[in-house]
Structure formats: C-alpha cells, structure tokens
C-alpha cells in the first residue's frame, strides 16, 4: 500500500480491510480499505497487540489512557465505532481470543480469561511454569496455546 509506512503489527478485518499498528508518535491504529487505499486513523496511544475477534468485523487492540492504564478496545468496522471491552491486568498488553470467544491475557506467569460481554472479572485459568511470557495465540481449533517466553 503506497500511502502506508512504518507498520508494526497487523490483522485482516475482512477480505478488503486491514487494521495495523503504525510507528508514529504516538503509536496509532489505522484501518485501510485495500481497494481504495485510504488509511483512516482509528485510535492513538495504542499497544502492539491487534486481533480480529473471530467471526466478526471487529478489530481489538490495546489503548492506553493518560495515566498509563491499558484497556482492550474494539473497533467495529461496520459501525465505525470504538468501545472499551476491559481493563488489562498489571502491565500486560498482550492478549488473544480463544476459540470459545473469550479473551486470554497473560500477567506474570499466569493466564487469565474473560468474557468481555458478561460483566465478569478476569479469572485465572492457569499458572504456567515456563516463566514470564507474552504474545499468547490460540490455534484456530482451540486445541493449542502458543506463547513467547522471556529469557
């Protein structure tokens, strides 16, 4: 895409729309219709985690407020609006969607789960003995969890 530069992470929203993290100051979330190639800034002061919610046209991402708190937000492409889904835990900014449609978030050595549409709190679902980790990702069939471990 000619009008897009300095892209970090990205995810496809649908066959025509791409959401991506741009290395501007501050970092921005932008969405482009790849046929029209007209970037649209959706949010600023974002984290690097960007994931399309499975089965939707919703792109989820981390947005930080002025006090440094991090929130998982959702950009609904068809509605062209952003909503806060949940505050993250601790200083964690890496999350992913499970095959069941819940959010997974690592904090320290623990893995937490949340259904952002029920109003419940984060629940610890596992203590991982591998050490502190980031970048969780669930396989499409929901059988496997991949993580990156800090050394």
Distance between the termini: 36 Å
Helix content: under 10%
Strand content: over 45%
Return the string of H and E elements.
EEEEEEEEEEEEEE
Class by alpha and beta content: mainly beta
Give the overall form: globular
How many distinct beta strands?
Answer: 14
How many separate structural domains?
A: 2
Widest beta sheet: strand line-up: 1-2-3-4
Structure description:
There is one protein chain. This protein is mainly beta and 151 residues long. The chain folds into two domains: 1-87; 89-151, no CATH class. The chain contains no helices and 14 strands. It has strands at 7-12, 17-22, 28-33, 40-44, 46-52, 58-64, 70-76, 81-87, 95-97, 103-107, 110-114, 123-127, 133-138, 145-149. The strands form four sheets. It has a four-stranded antiparallel beta sheet, with no helix packed on it. A four-stranded antiparallel beta sheet has the order 5-6-7-8, with no helix packed on it. It has a four-stranded antiparallel beta sheet with strand order 9-10-11-12, with no helix packed on it. A hairpin with a 6-residue loop joins strand 3 (28-33) and strand 4 (40-44). It is globular. It starts with 6 loop residues before the first strand and ends with a strand.
What features would you highlight for this structure?
2 domains, 151 residues, 53% strand, 4-stranded antiparallel β-sheet
